[in-house]
Design a protein that fits this description.
L-arginine/glycine Amidinotransferase, Chain A; 12 helices; alpha/beta; four-stranded mixed β-sheet; 25% helix; 19 strands
Amino acid sequence: MNNTDRTPAGLGYRWPAEWEPHAATWLAWPHNVNTWPGTFERIPTRFADFARTVADFEAVHVLAGGAAVRACAERQIGSHPNITLHDVPTNDAWCRDHGPTFLTPSYSETQPGVAPSPPTQVVGQAARNAAASTVALVDWKYNAWGGKYPPFEFDDAVPARIAELLDCPRFAAAFVLEGGAIEGNGHGTLLTTASCVLHPQRNPGWQRRDVERLLGDYLGARHVLWLARGELSGDDTDGHIDQLARFVGPRTIVAATATNPEDQDAGALRENLAQLRSMKDQDGQSLDVVSLPLPEPKFHDGHRLPASYCNFCFVNGGVIVPQFDDPADSQAIAILAELLPDRTVIGLPALDLVWGLGAFHCLSQQQPAYLSSRLPA
């Protein structure tokens, strides 16, 4: 893919893998009762438990705009030295989707520690002051999963507000993209689904080649893998990849699978598994694909919930895995612990949260620490 020197990739930025070191994790305090109808009273406590668990590993920044929202966050979290609240309003709590995609600079391989030229096509005061050793962020357009849940103007403004708080460069992209729709290995391979990214309520008229060019320009993607089947029962995102398949290493992917062949998702997930096992990374190497079982179907008020262990989130030295009061809970933790032996794998209750149609990955957005472009093999 050809990048000009006016794009993030052309300026030397890259999208790091989620397991690379973090400076912090960003969250948005839950306050929209319509997201968890009938059960919202339990959500702040569950969310506070999650925030404190992340804060055991790294700094946490919570968007908690408005007096009532901030008061609730302060009451639930208390005084925590690793958690900072920010007066930034949001419409909902899904920071993975409305939050920014963070980038880090790529330093020269031949001259480690030598930065590329400072960015020139970025938005705001940081554009004039930024050194290339700072993180930057991509501000995608956001329309609440194809206009499903208005209003969303506060959420759409979140990346710009975070850029102001960090005083970092912001690359504004004229493209609708949620963070849960993309998955990367930090080496240039990106995994996504056409059912979401090419949905006509998001990006009408876009073709795969157009999207691949844009992802190359903004994220440094050199190889885009398109998963054919984006379905997961209960999911309202049109096929977010973070419910279906996740990178846990440069060439290792865990993929959601149904243990019951009669499950209505079993066929689509088998197709995904077979497709992933036929795919290659950016260097033409085969991927190591490991099955991660779904829990037994979970329901609330007759609606099936999109419960998936793929919705785990990385933190520094750890992984936080959703638990659904299911026999497969311990199996999912064991699989991830074997694949990630240098990390503490922690399970947290998520059955209440997933009634809002997401879990820990959907609720969080990592801010990477700056690293050299010399990546681990």
